[in-house]
Specification:
Length: 194
Amino acid sequence: MYHDLNIPYSSHLDRSGLDKLRLILSKCTQQNEYTVALNVTMNHNQQVPTITPPDISTLGCKYSLNILKRVTIDTDAPLDAIDIRGTYDLIALRTRNAQVFEEACLRYDIDLITFHFDERISFELDPTVIQKALDRNIYFELCYADAIKDKQARTYTLQIARQLIEYTKGKQVIISSGADTVSEIRHPFDIFYL
């Protein structure tokens, strides 16, 4: 079974957006049994968006498809409390702020920490802090879609990947697509050729 834990989702999908999402989900299920996480991104002070998964019976799936609900909180400000565990299967955090990153590793009730892969991170990753996140069973996510679209983003993605793999020894690092279009979806074995 394969997994892609970052398929971007908008709670205000129009017909075109829904068709793009269906194409992505259909492509995923042509390869093997698949689990995807539909991901909404929100700011720390925004109201919690909802996810309504599309009807997968109309996709013509070759293999089974399991859909999870995920939220990514994009913030550079410290969070008071994250009380959305019952609404989503996965909670991720993305930040440009070193202090928020450290708090996420040490205290926040989250499942994943991800990064802005289209820009250089503005702080040094601390191996001690990352180890504490691993001890708390927090995973780190690498997304490859930006690396496909942009040469500079590819450089940033590889820099983050090298550091994370070194500091985690490859444990608790997941690779997701972050794909907005079906052309950005890659077979798991093809990702290593990026």
